[in-house]
Amino acid sequence: MSVSAPAPRTQKGRLTAGLPAEALENAKELFNNRRAGYSLEAPFYTDPTIFKMDMEGIFSNHWLFAASIAELPEPGDYVTVEYGPISLIVLRNDEGGVNVMHNVCRHRGARVLTADSGTTGNLVCGYHSWTYNSEGDLIHASAPGEMNFDKSCFGLKKAHSRIVAGLIFVCIADEPPTDFDETSKIFEPYLAPHDIARTKIAYQQNIIEEGNWKLVMENNRECYHCDGHPELACSLFPTWGLTEDTVPPHLEEVWERNKESERALEERCRRYGLPYEVVEELDTRIAGIRISREPLDGEGESFSPDGHRLSKKLLGDLRDFRLGRCSMHLQPNSWFHFLGDHIVTFSVFPITEGKTLVRTTWLVADDAVEGDDYDVEALTHTWKQTNIQDRAFVELCQQGAASPNYEQGPYMKSEYQVEAFINWYTQRMQEHLA
């Protein structure tokens, strides 16, 4: 008797299939009763049932930022990406693209690759040595007596991938959302001048935050707490997210300096033909986005104490260091800073309902020489410290959400992007549950 592969199942319902009907109905009611303008109810941050629903409705259905092409410079280079129960292999192929495969051996489910990153030829499972090529095809499965074993039926399961302006996105849905094409057209012109394909990794940091993934994203989407980031405040204007009628008296002088820097940056961008306008569609499209080019304080070049460049090498074909930062937010799991001298990417991968991995990667020009053109400690200092501070803020919020005395609180005007993120999340989950 020959062995054949079972018919594939759709993504929808895989993770929540075993949940009690009552738990699902209770969760649906929470989504339907979401109070606009207020933080979410505690179960959204603490309930394992809602976490499983998030993994299915958001992380199994939408495009996620996984890595940059700079992390996979050569064919055979790979990274593994894990979130919730999902593990993916993102592998650079011979044609310059990437193959994305589920990191689950088709024999008995063992992890095929266990390292975070590396280089490989064939993919060999360490359990029984089932071997797959770079396309995920099973090419070796030696087993005594298996005369009619059809290896073609047992390749690694595939996921979708896209490379846009050097950023790699993955989606494990059977049919990924199609509006990502339109979102890509929005951000590609902003990012292309920085030319990620001609960068390399200077440093990568993985932080585990003891908090729900939504709290991590909420914290990123506002600067109301930025007084808690003294290193970042040297170069990032603390008036970010404010409007003229919401600027407190102690920041009025900073507000005026920011506006003057904005005018100078806009003139510089027009001179070089760089897009800079704000595009903000965080909750009005499935692939929500906010992107703009914004000035930095001091010399306006980089995230340093005086705003001076941190690498001597300009990225891509840029002709000026004083370009502030091109800031991009993408729903649901990423944000980015593109500067003249380096790039910082951030990706968020949920682990459990109360634990999240935040991965930060610093990229510099591929011909920049460490110790000559840049110093790693200086390059990474601001965001390393900011990440540590943000981790503490997120963990405080998770502890509060777990308290029986937690109540929903109102978002302030400067936290409008938090409201947009939560509104996007609620819409997507209601669509999924419907």
TrEMBL record:
Rieske domain segment(s): 63-170
Keywords of this entry:
2Fe-2S, Iron, Iron-sulfur, Metal-binding, Oxidoreductase
Q: Which cofactor does it need?
A: Fe cation
Q: Which PROSITE patterns match?
A: RIESKE (PS51296)
In which domain of life is the source organism classified? Bacteria
Q: Name one GO molecular function term.
A: 2 iron, 2 sulfur cluster binding
This protein is called: (Fe-S)-binding protein
Instruction: Supply the source organism for this entry.
Output: Glutamicibacter uratoxydans
From the broadest rank down, the organism's phylogenetic lineage runs:
Bacteria, Bacillati, Actinomycetota, Actinomycetes, Micrococcales
